Amino acid sequence: MNARAARTAAATGTSRLLTRPMLLLLVASVGGMGGFYLLLSVLPLYAATAGGGGVGAGLTTGAMMLATVLAEPAVPWALARFGHRAVVGAGLLLLGLPSAVLCLWSSFPLTLGVCLARGVGLGIVVVAGTALAAELAPPGRRSESLGLYGVSLGVPSVLGLPAGVWLSDRLGFEPVFLLTAALTLLALPAVAGLPARRATRGERLSGDPDGRKGDPDGRNGELGGRTEDPGARNGAPDGPLGAAVNRSLVRPTLILGAATFASGVLVTFLPLALLGGPSHLAVVALLVQASVAPLARWGAGWWGDRHGSSSLLLPAVLAVALGTAGLVRLESPVMVIVSMVLFGAGFGAVQNLTLATMFERVPRSGFGRVSVVWNLAFDAGMGLGAVGFGLLIDRTGYPWGFAVTAVLLLAVLVPAWHDRRYVQAETT
User: Fold this and answer.
1) Which of 20-29, 231-240, 360-369 has the lowest mean pLDDT?
2) Which of 91, 141, 211, 396 is most buried, with most CB under 10 Å away?
3) 26-60: string of b/e by CB count within 10 Å (b at 16+)?
């Protein structure tokens, strides 16, 4: 057993992963993301059936992701100014309550306004939660902790994505709008138990005053008893987006953005692409994808703590590409389900692997910036996928649109390969 493996084994055997603050963070995340996923595929259907067509469906997801991208850079400032409780609570309210307004009025501009408000709430919840999950991680178990947090983000999609489509088909849209608001309100009590404010350099939420407990092998920039910021070493400026120009973060950011581009395509258009097909195929397909992804995300975290996160990036990206390519055969229910298994496994792994890799390459002082950059890439990719695919399918149709998306994903194998070689060179 090498030194890194020995230190990891010792740490993972003595540290507790599920502390009370972590448990409350997971509860708040489940409620917020439940409200997010319940409407994620429903609002495009709502817009399309109201006369918006494919372009209108894409704009609903695109508007939400645009608001998310614009809100995310301000979240670290808001956390420092107001604390986790107030900020995360506001995020939950914005994710849920605006949807209830659609029960009173029905118009496409109002729908876009609700999507914009939900996007701001989403940006708040995911940026604050990601940074806090990393800070609460016990020694040697950061990737696994991020995987557990990823499960709290993914499990709601297991029920929310298919349930939203199914309920809207059976009961209409209004009950789904009200249920979304109720879910986020139920999560608010957990927010009261979150840390009141962000950890400072001398006061880590995990009880780690010197920042080394979460980094037993010293890979996060603790050199010679001082903290060296890789972003600063590479000429990166301070501030919430300073990590964006850290050269070692560029490839993971591109890989994540491409994977979420495909995810934006699937969650927005798969129910529309399967209209007129076998009954409930869209619901089953979304359920399969949503069930596999969080398991893969947690499994990738377990693997990353023991073997390095970058080692799985290449096969994970390939699985996402193959899963998207399989949707060319929309007429085959078996192919659709198999494609969703592949896509879910690859997408879940990509989320954890890219996030853990980026945290490994900055010190703890850069966690907030990394959380912003990662979530910006995630949400920008999803929004661009929804809008771009909506414009594309009016000219190509769904099968060719999925084929073009798969080709774009195959191109991302190049940066995934180079990132693996980069890590090998750094460790030799």
Assistant:
1) 231-240
2) 91
3) bbbbbbbbbbbbbbbbbbbbbbbeeebebebbbbb
